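Margin note from the TA: students keep mixing up input and output lines. Inputs are the sequences; the output is the structure of the whole complex. Example:
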Amino acid sequence: MSAGVTAKRGQVAREPDAATRGARARGDVGWGWAAQAATGAVVLVLVAVHMVAQHFILPEGLRDYAQVEAWLRQPIVAAVETVFLASVTAHALLGVRAVLLDLGPSPRVERALTAGLGVIGVATVLYGLWLTAVVTGLA
Amino acid sequence: MTPQTGRSAGPGVPRGDLPHRAGATGWFDTRHRHLGDWAFVVNRLSGLGLVAYLYLHLVILSQLARGPEAWGGFLAIATSPPVLLFDVLLLAGLLAHAFNGIRVTLLGLGLVASRQKALWVALMGMAVLIALAGASRILGVTS
C-alpha cells in the first residue's frame, strides 16, 4: 500500500501509518477471522440444539427448578452445555474484538484488548461451571 | 487470499475507502452503500445485541443458585407477554445473525464467487420462515 492515498469520490484521504496503527487498520484481518468462523460453525449447531432442548420440546417453554437440576445431572447434557458456553463466549468476545479493532487501535492497545477479552472469556466459562456445580449439588 | 470481513474494493485499493472502514461511525455512512455493506452492518448490530443478551442471560441464570423460589419468580416473569415479545425479537436477531454469518463465511472462504445476491435472498428467506414459525409458537398461536 502506498503511503500517499488519493481522495476518492469526495472522501477525505486518510494516511495509513503502519508503524503506529494496529493490524486491522492496516487491512489485515488475521487469526481473529478464522477463529470467529470456526466458533461460529460450532455455535450454529449448538444454538440450534439449545433452542430445541431448552425451549421447543417443553410445553411451557422453560424448565422449573427440579427439571433444570435433573437435566444438568446428565453428564452428556452438562458436557454439551459447557462446550456451548465456551464456544458462544469465544464467538461473542471475538466479535467484540473485531468491532474494537475496526476503531484502529495501536498494536499495544490491540494486545491489551485481546488479553482483557481472554480473561473475561475464561471468567465467563468458570462462572458457568460454578453455576452448574451449584445446581447439580456438586458445590 | 486472506479472507476479508467487508466488501473488497479490489487489489491495490486502500480499504480505508470503504464506508465501514472509518471506524464504527462508518457503519452509518450510507454513501456508496451496497447490499454487502448493509449485511455487514446488520451482522455487527445484531452481533452486539446478542453479546448483550448473552450476558443478560448469564446474569439471570444466577437465580438458579438462589434456589427454587427465586427461579420460580423468574419463570413467572419470563412467560409474561412483554418478555415473550422480546423473545420474538431475540429469535429474529439470532436468525438474521446466524444466516448472515453463514453467508459471510462462505464468501470469506471463497466458496461462493458468483450469485451472491441470490445466496443472500435464499438465506434471509430461510431465516424469515424460521422466525415466523418460532414467533407463532412463542406467542402461542400454535401449540
